[in-house]
Amino acid sequence: MTSLWLASRTETGADSRTAESATDPFEPDARYDEVVVGAGLTGLVTALLFARAGKRVAVLESRSIGAVATGRSTAKLSLLQGSQLQKIKAHTYQSIVQAYVDANRAGQEWMLEYASSRGVAVQRRDAVSYAGTAEGVETVGREFRLARAAGLDVRLVDRTDLPFETFGAVVLPDQAQFDPLDVLAALAADVRSLGGVIVENTRVTGVRASDPAEVRTSRGTVFGAHVHLTTGVPILDRGLYFAKLRALRSYAGSYEVPMGGGELPQSMYLSVDAPSRSIRTAPGRPTGDGSKGPATLIVGGNGHPVGRAGDTQRLVDDLHDWTARHFPGAVPTHSWSAQDYETPHRVPFVGYLPRGRGRIYFASGYDKWGMTNAVQAALTLVSDLSSDSPSWAKTLHHRATLPAAMASGLGANVATGWWALKGWAGVLTGPSTDALPIPAEGEGLIGRSGIHPTGTSTVGGRTCQVSAVCPHLGGVLTWNSAETSWDCPLHGSRFAPDGILLEGPTVHDLRV
Ligand SMILES: Cc1cc2nc3c(=O)[nH]c(=O)nc-3n(C[C@H](O)[C@H](O)[C@H](O)COP(=O)(O)OP(=O)(O)OC[C@H]3O[C@@H](n4cnc5c(N)ncnc54)[C@H](O)[C@@H]3O)c2cc1C
């Protein structure tokens, strides 16, 4: 499954807007001031800020620019974020809510200014958090009050222009949306123009907190005064952050909708209740005769913890069915999914990694609000090193963990423990690999080779057999039918059918 954004780059061939321009060469043993691991939005903004400060920067990316969360985002750049403020408030103090809003405002302002200076197309849109059920009305009211108290110019409305029943909404005018790969392409070009290098297809496998820090990769070693892990979830286990983050995957589809001369709803919408639905449009692309094609509808939702949803294809089908019901005649053009990470208090983790001797830093846990949070994280990482952190960053660094956040972290770890047991119990009491049929196209089956869990799948006519044990902490993998991948229900690592690592905290492929 490929996102509308990533697909448009491959469908039209290499055009000037392509983020994935040719990789820079890997220079073994090279020394840099700042080594940034991961070329998503966090990594590239961090790299650009350091390059602008005159630092020698290298970005090391295991896949390609934007290949993971950023290139699959719905890319709303908004300070109204569904019901996010009340989720934060439930786990921490009002001062943290305020600092979160201030941080996101700084991120949004930076991004708008950057996009404007680089000619990146941005559409200004109202953000709308709506109640899809009568029970959601109170949530809308709470979000309105918290947003107002935090200085956001929100208003309450009784109805929206969505083509189905809603029960009131909170609206924040003049937010923004874009194509995330346009932004990444501009950032990558700017990093390179300032002498930075961006090396793709280079997986970082370990970092030693020596002076300078030693960064081990799949292609050799490089050195950096500092190393910034902007890898979604941190790839080093120091500080056990993987256990404090919940990996949540969700789905999106883009649709052509016959509007009979009318227009698609123009704002950026997010329901505050179940089923969670995120709705926006993308401007029509130029057609062969030079005119602009019709706008595309994008609908997202049906999230779940990675590896724990059973048949994921049914979630994609459900999203398509829902869209066809509410936007009659909608025809899917692309479907995709992606994952992001949730912290117990819903505020991102940004800062130094414990036992990293002040050399290793990381940013994670944007809870699907990375367009603003990735930028505020980058601003934080860079300003922390010059001891010039904005006051919102200082407040967020010193947040207290309330019992509610501890309880939610504990609950998440109990669930993880249960999935670890369930995986192993299922395999040990299940059939041996030899007793299983060859999986049908698109199917993956887990069996036992002796007592070792083994996954067999058939994708594109090719049957592959791999170890079904996650190299991170030994979780038994589950088959993701929508993405045809092996996913770990413990901490969210994911692998292609042939065992190659796609994403997650591990740095190893599956044993074949
Ligand atoms: C379905 C969905 C919709 C979303 N919609 C929105 C939205 O509308 N608005 C919003 O604000 N946010 C949204 N988000 C959140 C946002 O997309 C993410 O928070 C953001 O893109 C994260 O950026 P990142 O740079 O931290 O991570 P990524 O973009 O995932 O980048 C991390 C990079 O690190 C690389 N990497 C990982 N491990 C290694 C390694 N060992 N060595 C080298 N490189 C490595 C990866 O390959 C990857 O390219 C959404 C998220 C999801 C899942």
From TrEMBL:
<dbReference type="InterPro" id="IPR036922">
    <property type="entry name" value="Rieske_2Fe-2S_sf"/>
</dbReference>
<feature type="domain" description="Rieske">
    <location>
        <begin position="466"/>
        <end position="512"/>
    </location>
</feature>
<dbReference type="InterPro" id="IPR006076">
    <property type="entry name" value="FAD-dep_OxRdtase"/>
</dbReference>
<dbReference type="Pfam" id="PF01266">
    <property type="entry name" value="DAO"/>
</dbReference>
<dbReference type="GO" id="GO:0051537">
    <property type="term" value="F:2 iron, 2 sulfur cluster binding"/>
</dbReference>
<dbReference type="GO" id="GO:0004497">
    <property type="term" value="F:monooxygenase activity"/>
</dbReference>
<dbReference type="InterPro" id="IPR036188">
    <property type="entry name" value="FAD/NAD-bd_sf"/>
</dbReference>
<keyword id="KW-0001">2Fe-2S</keyword>
<dbReference type="GO" id="GO:0046872">
    <property type="term" value="F:metal ion binding"/>
</dbReference>
<keyword id="KW-0408">Iron</keyword>
<dbReference type="GO" id="GO:0016705">
    <property type="term" value="F:oxidoreductase activity, acting on paired donors, with incorporation or reduction of molecular oxygen"/>
</dbReference>
<feature type="region of interest" description="Disordered">
    <location>
        <begin position="1"/>
        <end position="26"/>
    </location>
</feature>
<keyword id="KW-0479">Metal-binding</keyword>
<feature type="compositionally biased region" description="Polar residues">
    <location>
        <begin position="1"/>
        <end position="11"/>
    </location>
</feature>
<dbReference type="InterPro" id="IPR017941">
    <property type="entry name" value="Rieske_2Fe-2S"/>
</dbReference>
<protein>
    <submittedName>
        <fullName>FAD-dependent oxidoreductase</fullName>
    </submittedName>
</protein>
<dbReference type="GO" id="GO:0005737">
    <property type="term" value="C:cytoplasm"/>
</dbReference>
<keyword id="KW-0411">Iron-sulfur</keyword>
